[in-house]
Amino acid sequence: MPRIRPGRVRTKNTNRREALRLSSMAPEDYNVRPGEVKSIACPDCRTWRRIMGEKVLKIREHRISDKVAEGERHVLCPGTDQVVVVDIDVRRWQVKQDCLLREAMPQDTRRAAQQFYKPLPAPAAPVSQMNAEITLESARQAYLAHRTRIVGRGRSAARPQGCTRCVGGQHCPDGAILARRFVFALQAEPARREAREQQERQEQRAARQQSRPAVRRAQWAKHGGEAVERANNRCTERTSGTVSEFRGADLPMLPQNIEAHDRRQAELGRQYARKTAATSAA
After folding, report:
1. In the chain, at which end, N or C, are there fewer CB atoms within 10 A of the end residue's CB?
2. How deeply is 242 buried, as exposed, middle or buried, from its count of CB atoms within 10 A (0-12, 13-18, 19+)?
3. For the chain, domain boundaries
4. Rounded to two decimals, what is the model's pTM?
5. Whether the Cβ atoms of residue 77 and residue 45 lie closer than 8 Å to each other
6. What's the Cα-to-Cα distance from 210 to each of 6, 204, 216, 219, rounded to whole Å?
7. pLDDT tens digits, residue range 128-171?
8. Which helix (H) or strand (E) holds 120?
């Protein structure tokens, strides 16, 4: 099968027109997708033609005569060898064309959007594999429980017996791990005790600072003072028969337009009378 080669421009002739810029054409009148054959709708005959060349792009030679079979001569299109300049952002143009194609595609033939699933959290480790905090007492109890075990259950339980392989300074693999853990806890206990005592001293110092008279007065000042005292004095019990400050000459008790108010009240009275009559008749 012969290899298909890209089209080449075999002539340097042009139609002597000004170069055709793609930015001056409609985006749907040309195709410059990477990996595809470049083509364009000829501005003269409005037919799709191939764009030839690599550096200098030109519209391929084509004819517009459709009566060659009747004996007429071929007529070249004026758009032949038209120089084309790609002065657009090809990637941005391609993205816009892809969006237009997806919108114009029927809904039945559209491809479903890619689903992005949230990754599942890793399963929690079993309780038996969790690393609990090792204290001096827990390490000691674990080591003693290994060295002193009770054989049997219930009434048949015999006297405590230690691990038969842990004798003197020799330990079995499990006993060696427990002994090493107890030694590490014993060595770290002074530093841990000092850190605990230092934290307790800091807490006591903070408590003493909070209980100072000056600090207490500042706290009381937030919830007291002249403003709070005036507010408390306003909350006194009112003697019966006295007039409240919310009632008096300064508070308007009558409508601004008395005539309009009377007309409105009369209209409401007539509406209520009609409604009452209709209800009684029913």
Report:
1. N
2. exposed
3. 20-107, 134-150+161-232
4. 0.35
5. yes
6. 87, 10, 7, 10
7. 676 767 788 888 888 888 877 654 555 554 555 667 777 777 88
8. none
